[in-house]
Write a structure and sequence with these properties.
heterodimer; A: Rossmann fold; 4-stranded antiparallel sheet; 10 strands; globular; B: mainly alpha; ABC transporter involved in vitamin B12 uptake, BtuC; two-stranded antiparallel ribbon; 4 strands
Chain lengths: 329, 332
């Protein structure tokens, strides 16, 4: 307590827990996380002769934001589909909270608390914004055929859900549009609505497939804020993104895929220096202007090494005032 | 002038008669399938045929009571819906369309086939099964009654009264369901199945429930038709009726509780009104025989309905009850 003079910032304290927990991990593919929410083991998915996904081992830290990046066709969305039951792999196992998700259908995965959004936003156009939101609520009595006929059995729950939906809509600044059809919303508003709708189910893991795609820069900032909020509420976030600034800004851990495989993982600052990643994006045999390029790389590597040493040292630059205490409970 | 008034009266009678009820119930079922859930059922008439023949076979062939026949018809429709839904509802929407249209035609051909004659009496069909139902009428069914300028038999009136009660109850059921969270899930499935799956709803189960519910409405429609005509003949259940019911639904406005009902009344009214008026004009020479003979009238009235539907789609694409904003969203 004495180390924390501004008590008002208590919300910020848990924010980077995952980052700290992951700070000491080696930057290698398949590294074991201290507290994994999802574990993927030897999952492969082939479409004919093409191996879309072939992930040997991947763990996703609970309560953190994990960025999933990679060039087009790397298998990011396919991996998303596999993890959420929208597609079934050829081989492999994957678990959430120790429960195997193999052979589960999408709605069963969602009921366990793993919700996703889609790369192409799926706003339900001819439903109002509020109806979209209410659909996200789980365990609704009124969604069974017989109970639907007796409004008394679901009215109270519907009212509670409506209040919760309005709270979320206010947070996402969509409350003024609650009675509009979702189909008239702009692209960015649809992204917001889809995220808000996913939150109606009180998820444990939120999987966002390119949440910032096609969104104007101002809205990107607000979306980023919302994603960070999810982490602060203790949710695990996995997201696919192409914008490296965004990835660097919010992720605690970055997983890089290329040609269906995880080729690198580590904290965001590790990624841009990783040779495998550069090769994946630019091609392995790019003939770069040797001198400058190599100079830069050596410099960057040295800097990274220093950063790593500093990070490991107690009271280093990355560790805040509270961190060293919270780091080892 | 009296020709026009006569045609109006006969048109109104047709719009309120058992055929309108038949189309209304078919269209209510299609509304649940297509309007609310987005299921493409192009064989609604198959469920109607099972409903009609459910009564006809049970009563005429097996000697069971009328109400047992009603239950047999409904159960048969439910079983058919399950059979059709089981393999197709996991697939894309068009598979259900293919399977239903094939089933509707196949079932009709099966019912009229020689090998089915011991049960369905083949192309001649079954009759004399509605006696115990007509006998329930609280008034004399042998007399004729004058109503709205036309003459109704007591039996017709009774079928119409029970039929419209059935339509009203069906509408009430649909209204109750569609304002509930259950209905909200159906509408969401119509918009995007995958989004609904991602929100933890068992889409397959909801689609099946909707298919069965709409099938039961279709079966009820077929029962009204069979009881109204007093006979069940396989060739009465041509699949063209399914598409007329679609026309009625679109005319009234899809995904609206009263849309299919009002659409059916108007459709039947227009068909009968045009028919009667054209025949009257031809017989008294207003329309010269050279231009249009009375044998063409049956076709011309459908042309008129077609023109009417086209005008509707141009000027009021949402139908009579629909919400224009909702329809315009599809333009994106």
């Amino acid at each position: 307590m004495p180390a924390d003079p501004n008590t008002g910032s208590h919300a910020a304290a848990p924010a980077r827990l995952a980052q700290k927990a992951l700070a000491d991990l080696p930057w290698e593919v398949g590294v074991a996380k201290p507290d994994p929410a999802m574990v993927v083991d030897k999952v492969t998915r082939t479409f004919g002769g093409l191996t879309a996904v072939s992930v040997d081992h991947l763990e996703i830290q609970r309560g953190g934001i994990t960025g999933l990046i990679g060039p087009n066709g790397a298998g990011k969305t396919t991996l998303f589909n596999l993890l959420t039951g929208f597609d079934q792999p050829n081989t492999g196992t994957w678990t959430f909270d120790g429960r195997s998700l193999g052979r589960m259908s999408p709605h069963q995965v969602a009921r366990l608390g793993v919700v996703r959004t889609f790369q192409l936003t799926k706003a339900l156009s001819r439903l109002t914004v509020l109806q979209n939101m209410l659909l996200g609520a789980q365990d609704q009595a009124g969604e069974s055929f017989l109970k639907a006929l007796v409004p008394g059995t679901w009215r109270a729950q519907e009212k509670a859900n409506t209040e919760k939906a309005m709270d979320l809509l206010r947070r996402f600044k969509l409350d003024a549009k609650k009675d509009d059809f979702a189909g008239i919303l702009s692209g960015g508003q649809r992204k917001l609505l889809e995220m808000a709708r996913a939150l109606m189910s009180d998820p444990k893991v939120v999987m966002l497939d390119e949440p910032m795609a096609g969104v104007n820069p101002a809205l990107t900032q607000s979306l980023l804020g919302h994603v960070k909020d999810l982490r602060e509420e203790g949710m695990t976030v996995v997201f696919v993104e192409h914008d490296m600034d965004v990835v660097r800004d919010i992720s605690d851990w970055v997983v890089v895929m290329a040609a269906g495989k995880v080729i690198a993982e580590g904290p965001p600052e590790s990624i841009s220096q990783n040779k495998a990643v550069v090769d994946a994006y630019l091609g392995a045999h790019h003939d770069a202007p040797l001198t400058n390029e190599e100079e830069d790389r050596v410099l960057a590597e040295a800097e990274a090494a220093i950063a790593r040493e500093e990070g490991a040292a107690p009271g280093g630059t990355t560790a805040g005032t509270i961190s060293s205490e919270e780091h080892k409970p | 002038m009296s020709d026009v008034l006569d045609a109006l009266a006969i048109g109104v009678k047709s719009g309120l008669g058992f055929q309108a009820i038949f189309f209304a119930l078919l269209a209510i079922g299609i509304n649940v399938h297509f309007g609310y859930t987005g299921l493409l059922n192009f064989g609604q008439i198959a469920f109607a045929m099972l409903g009609g023949f459910g009564i006809a076979i049970s009563v005429s062939q097996w000697g069971l009571p009328f109400w047992v026949g009603v239950i047999v018809g409904i159960v048969a429709a439910v079983v058919l819906a399950l059979l059709l839904g089981l393999p197709t509802l996991r697939l894309r929407a068009d598979y259900l369309a293919i399977v239903t249209i094939a089933t509707a035609e196949g079932l009709r051909l099966l019912f009229r086939s020689v090998s089915a004659t011991p049960v369905t009496n083949g192309t001649r069909g079954l009759s004399a099964f509605n006696g115990s139902f007509i006998a329930l009428a609280p008034w004399d069914t042998q007399r004729r009654y004058d109503l709205l300028g036309t003459s109704w038999s007591g039996g017709e009136l009774w079928v119409a009264l029970v039929g419209w009660t059935l339509v009203a109850l069906s509408c009430l059921l649909v209204w109750l369901l569609m304002r509930s969270p259950w209905g909200r899930v159906l509408k969401a499935i119509r918009e995007d199945e995958d989004a609904v799956r991602a929100l933890g709803k068992n889409v397959y189960s909801y689609k099946m429930q909707a298919l069965v519910l709409g099938a039961v409405f279709g079966a009820l429609g077929g029962m009204v038709y069979a009881v109204g005509t007093g006979s069940a003949i396989p060739d009465q259940y041509q699949n063209a009726n399914t598409f007329l019911a679609y026309a009625a639904l679109i005319l009234g406005g899809a995904a609206r509780v009263l849309g299919p009902v009002v659409g059916s009344i108007i459709l039947l009214f227009i068909l009968q009104f045009a028919d009667t008026l054209l025949r009257a004009f031809i017989s008294n020479g207003v329309i010269p025989e050279a231009l249009l003979s009375s044998t063409d009238v049956a076709q011309i009235r459908f042309v008129l309905v077609g023109i009417g539907l086209m005008l509707l789609l141009v000027f009021r694409p949402q139908g009579i009850f629909g919400d224009r904003r909702e329809v315009m969203l599809d333009a994106r």
